Amino acid sequence: MTALGALIRRDIRIALRVGGGALIGVLFFLTVVVLMPFAIGPDLALLARLGPAILWLGALLASLLTLDRLFMADHDDGSLDLMTMSRTPLELSCAAKALAHWLAAGLPLVVATPVLGLLLNLELGATAAVALTLLAGTPALTFTGMIGAALAVTLHRGGLLLAVLVLPLSIPVLIFGVAASEAAITDPSSFGAPFSILCALSLFGLVIGPFAAAASLRHGLD
Amino acid sequence: MRLSGREVGCVRGGREVFSGLHFQAASGEALAVVGPNGSGKTSLLRLIAGLLVPASGSIILEGGESELTLAEQSHYLGHRDALKPALSVSENLTFWRDFLGGATSSAAESLAVVELDHAARLPAAYLSAGQRRRLSIARLLTVRRPIWLLDEPTNALDTAGQKLFATLMGDHLARGGLIVAATHTPLGVAARTLHVGDVS
Fold first, then answer.
1. Among A104, A7, A78, A121, which residue's Cα sits nearest to residue A221?
2. How large is the average pLDDT for residues B12-21?
3. pLDDT given at position B48
């Protein structure tokens, strides 16, 4: 446990320092959402109706933007070699790295949502619903995305391949995330079903992601 | 403790690097792997470290801790030094001490041994190549592992540093450690030589 704690602390510390990239995701999220009203026009009703979908799309793209950092740096500087050799199973190390990545890059998106909801004319309740679905759904994006990040590292292809691999996997998360947000706004009674599926997707990713990523990293050693 | 390789072969990118390699080293012995560039010295070290899979033959450790694999009892000091430029010297070292675990000693003491204690709070980004090497060596001292796999360990070290590292290797061997080092220069400790690649 000391080993995993140390790994999480290190990754968060690196992400928060200069050049770490924790803020890049939030800034991108902010940019996408701020630009939307200018593109769609000053129709407040339309903005409020599209709001949850815009927030979810922004969060999805923002989390994709920072995913390639998950293993790339550790691979390039040889840290991954030492992690593979260490007494901590690589699966657990991968899970710890993904958790640290979510804390540094995913959680800030959830925190920023209430502010951005204001820009989209969302009511307080609707904003809270979107933030809640993002809280439940962004771990799924990180944990399924880590499979793509591991493959991109071992195949020596960066960004573009990652997007092609990860985007199809994140479609279910997007569908149920937006469905749960819409349900909470229009008809609170049907919020439970899509939200449960969203939580299930996150738990599914939590179990599958570390094993698939570790297998990919082991297979791609060179 | 005895590390031995039998008929070890290595294939990288579809090309045979070496084959039929035999080697043996026991506790307290150092093995110097020599050979021209591209002959597979690094590949051999990575095979022993479990970072590559041998195409043929086997590498066995006898008499180590039975519950741990060969890789888990080894230190690997490669070209890439696993240091994070954003973290300070002591943060880098403390992380590897906590992460690698097992028997450890104080990070500050190891930094003093490799003469980096004055730079402990400096971000690793500002270290010179020789200082980075010294910091990697401090990792070998802080976390105890019986087997050291060293890839050109004295690269970038100054004369005093090379002498210091020779002493540290001597101490490690005296404690019953085992060293396999790929090198172009004399190691500074008594070592058997293993030729890899074309020796004609």
1. A78
2. 87
3. 92
Tell me the pTM: 0.90
Split into its structural domains, chain A has a count of 1
Q: How confident is the model at residue B200 (pLDDT cuts 50, 70, 90)?
A: very low
Domains of chain B by range and CATH?
Answer: 2-195 (3.40.50.300)
| Cα A43 to Cα A38, A40, A121, distances in angstroms | 10, 8, 10
Check A14 against B72: CB less than 8 A apart.
no
A10·B52 Cβ contact <8 A? no
Q: Which chain A residue lies closest to B46 (C-alpha atoms)?
A: A222
The residue of chain A nearest to residue B43, with distances taken between CA atoms, is A222
What pLDDT was estimated at residue B181? 93
ipTM of the complex: 0.90
- In chain A, residues 137-156 whose CB comes closer than 8 Å to chain B: none
pLDDT averaged over 10-residue windows placed end to end, chain A, 222 residues: 91 85 87 89 85 91 86 90 92 95 92 90 88 93 91 76 85 92 82 91 94 91 72
Domain encompassing residue A109: 2-219
Q: What angle do CA B176, B182, B184 make, to 5 degrees?
A: 125
| DSSP structure string for A26-67 | HHHHHHHHHHHHHHH-S-HHHHHHHHHHHHHHHHHHHHHHHH
What is the percentage of chain B residues whose pLDDT exceeds 70?
A: 98
**Cα–Cα separations (whole angstroms), residue A22 to A74, A94, A155, A205, B36:** 16, 18, 25, 22, 44
Q: How far apart are CA A109 and CA A102, in angstroms?
A: 10
Distance CA A58, CA A165 (A): 18
Please report how many Cα atoms fall inside a 13 Å half-sphere around the Cα of residue A210, on the Cβ side. Answer: 16
Interface list for A 11-30 with B (CB within 8 A): 13-14, 17-20
